[in-house]
Amino acid sequence: MASNVNPTVRRRRLGQELRRLREQKGMTAEEVAERLLVSQSKISRLENGRRSISQRDVRDLCGVYEVEDRRIVESLMQMAKESRQQGWWHAFGDIPYSVYIGLETDAASLRVYEPQVMPGLLQTPAYAEAVVAGALPEASAADVEKRVQVRLRRQDRIHDTRNPLRLWAVIDEAALRRTVGGRQIMREQLERLLELSRLPHVTVQVMPFAMGAHPGLNGQYAILEFPDAADSTVVYLEGVTSDLYLEKAGDVHSYSVMYEHLRAQALNVDQSREFIEGIAKEYTRG
Predict the structure, then answer these.
(1) What is the C-alpha separation between 119 and 111, in angstroms, rounded?
(2) CA nearest 206: which of 176, 236, 242?
(3) In Å, what is the CA distance from 141 to each residue of 28, 133, 145, 157?
(4) pLDDT for 182-217, tens place per residue?
(5) Rounded to 5°, angle at Cα 77 from 98 and 1
(6) Which range is the signal sequence, renumbered to this chain (predicted)?
């Protein structure tokens, strides 16, 4: 696969264009489904980018929408072809959160709140292994190793000198004090967190227990923004058996405002580093 082709992003972009064509035609998803003798849910999945789109699907939809410009049809057909190619993560087999990985790989910036563990992009290999093994007690050693390797590969975006991911992480004090994998692993993890927090494109803030109630009490979430204005911002909510992706403007706005409050209530960057250093010393003394 060409390095500049991300199938997940292609599906989203193609789905958005197909939705625009449908709405421009003044048709509902149900009406389109009836014309093509398919389920309404299929049309919805095609438009939200959660399902691969075949060139035949594009051809049929363009026929229903009476798209006469051949250049538009050919462009959409090419996007459909690219959307069915495989990203680097497919080499690791079935990854439950592959849609998220595809989005993260192409994102320009990521804002994340983590209440329980360190952000995956900032984890050491040993800490990542302990987190995965603890969260999935019935997983085989091979599956744990595969997930760890995927997590470490995702971290390439942080170290990419040409196109680094702009990461802003607000981390709850609980994640700093939860002893994952043992005291030595925690000390090394906190030292890595401090090291990465000094990168110009990485910002780390700590939400201390003393702050009390705050807008992040409902749990972890991430906000992904993309370099192309045609790609809408996505809010990602991780679940146990399924994940949720929010793209409606109102939802994105609500979570963005909530994140601004989180950043305002958390310790500033310098205070956060001092706080992390203090806890790292506790693990050293132990």
Answers:
(1) 10
(2) 176
(3) 48, 8, 6, 26
(4) 999 999 999 999 999 999 999 999 999 999 999 999
(5) 45
(6) none
